Backbone:
């Protein structure tokens, strides 16, 4: 019933008007990805379910803040699941919440078309290949931040590294990843240099 | 600002952009990055690039099938919130595990609860839904827009099932009305036994996977709406449970039941 129905943007707009079936249609479309992500972060089914339920309630409340010019619907939905999962992970560990990511939309400004296009076409296999291409220390730092919910200070403490080193690995690793994803031929390894098409 | 200071701030902020994009900064650092980003086109351009990488990370994870009951819990949580006229004042209407995530939400200018005012949104569809609900089960504080425009023309066939009292609550009565096209169960209960202090009534939908929580209320005579596919459940039951949030699994005696 929902497969050939309205697009994600339209569904989110309907949710903002209080349309509950529209929210469930979004869940039917993206729930598997969200649950997979929450499970990867939390490592157990019960907690992953709790995070996904939190996330969809948050989507319900914040649908009116969604702005398609600042990023795609899929990214927005998954960002919310990610935040809820990390929030739960840190709560369970007794760590203070990471406040920086609480607003999924406000920090985003209009994304230049070139990058927006890159975001739309990247697929899971291409991302896995690109991430594997990253230098190990950059990949590790990114994964500790994204999947383990650690701040750059916590990563530095855990790995006994200077703060500047961790900040550099996170930033340069992400830049390199974006560069790899922007390359026209997905899956080609060994061309890790940034190329923004200038 | 002095040029050197500006350059230093730019360099320091730029170094933090990766951590910021990953949410791996503390509140003070985040505020500092946001303030700088508002005025620095170069860092804005870099952030756009970094977001692409961060947005890609969830996509590399293999999707997994969530348990089917999760969909019902999502529906029940949203339905409960939608039915709550003033959510912050009625904590009982929130599932327990959601409360911590709600607490730190920052104030935003937009309405956080889009469906807060049903009556203020007098769209034709909402009005049609309202008439339907009123005819079927009396007044519900409930924000529902019908699923698709096509369904507007033909009213779904509502089916009403009597609610049966139990030995624990011989005076209880009421009905469950099911609207198949909207997968909506509307519960209208009367004269439930009084609650102990700190208790709430909790609704359960019982199917092959056991009881699934479907919302709470705290008045012996009340209406309650549940989004659910009736075919997946055999029985609806109501118990008294510890409030204000209810429980994940029933612990109290059943005070009323309906065979679905």
Residues:
């Amino acid at each position: 019933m929902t497969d050939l129905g309205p697009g994600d943007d339209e569904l989110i707009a309907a949710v903002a008007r209080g349309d509950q079936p529209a929210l469930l249609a979004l869940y039917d479309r993206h729930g598997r990805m969200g649950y997979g992500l929450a499970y990867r972060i939390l490592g157990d089914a019960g907690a992953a379910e709790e995070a996904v339920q939190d996330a969809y309630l948050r989507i319900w409340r914040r649908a009116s803040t969604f702005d398609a010019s600042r990023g795609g619907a899929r990214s927005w939905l998954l960002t919310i699941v990610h935040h809820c999962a990390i929030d739960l992970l840190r709560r369970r560990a007794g760590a203070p919440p990471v406040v920086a990511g609480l607003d999924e939309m406000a920090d985003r400004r209009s994304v230049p078309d070139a990058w927006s296009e890159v975001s739309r076409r990247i697929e899971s296999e291409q991302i896995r290949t690109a991430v594997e291409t990253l230098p190990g220390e950059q990949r590790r730092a990114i994964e500790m931040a994204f999947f383990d919910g650690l701040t750059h200070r916590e990563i530095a403490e855990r790995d006994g590294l200077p703060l500047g080193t961790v900040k550099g690995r996170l930033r340069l690793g992400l830049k390199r990843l974006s560069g790899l994803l922007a390359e026209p031929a997905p899956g080609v390894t060994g061309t890790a240099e940034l190329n923004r098409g200038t | 600002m002095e040029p050197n200071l500006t350059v230093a701030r730019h360099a320091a902020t730029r170094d933090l952009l990766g951590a910021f994009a990953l949410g791996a900064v503390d509140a003070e650092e985040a505020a500092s990055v946001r303030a700088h980003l508002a005025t620095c086109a170069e860092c804005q351009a870099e952030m756009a690039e970094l977001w692409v990488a961060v947005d890609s990370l969830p996509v590399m994870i293999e999707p997994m099938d969530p348990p089917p009951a999760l969909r019902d819990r999502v529906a029940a949580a949203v339905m409960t919130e939608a039915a709550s006229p003033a959510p912050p004042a009625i904590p009982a209407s929130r599932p327990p595990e959601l409360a911590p995530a709600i607490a730190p939400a920052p104030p935003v200018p937009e309405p956080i609860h889009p469906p807060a005012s049903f009556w203020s949104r007098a769209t034709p569809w909402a009005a049609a839904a309202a008439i339907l609900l009123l005819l079927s089960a009396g007044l519900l504080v409930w924000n529902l827009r019908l699923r698709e425009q096509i369904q507007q023309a033909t009213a779904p066939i509502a089916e009403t099932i009597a609610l049966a009292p139990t030995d624990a609550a011989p005076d209880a009565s009421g009905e469950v009305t099911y609207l198949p096209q909207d997968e909506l169960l509307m519960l209208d209960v009367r004269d439930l036994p009084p609650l102990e202090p700190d208790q709430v009534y909790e609704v359960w939908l019982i199917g092959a996977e056991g009881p699934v929580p479907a919302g709470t209320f705290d008045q012996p005579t009340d209406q309650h709406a549940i989004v659910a596919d009736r075919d997946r459940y055999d029985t609806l039951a109501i118990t008294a449970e510890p409030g204000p949030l209810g429980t994940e699994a029933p612990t109290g005696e059943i005070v009323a039941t309906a065979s679905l």
User: Anything to note?
Assistant: The CA atoms of residues 9 and 73 of chain A lie 6 Å apart. The two ends of chain A are 44 Å apart (CA to CA). Chain A touches chain B through 98 residues (CB under 8 Å). The domain at 112-198 of chain A is CATH 1.10.10.10 (Arc Repressor Mutant, subunit A).
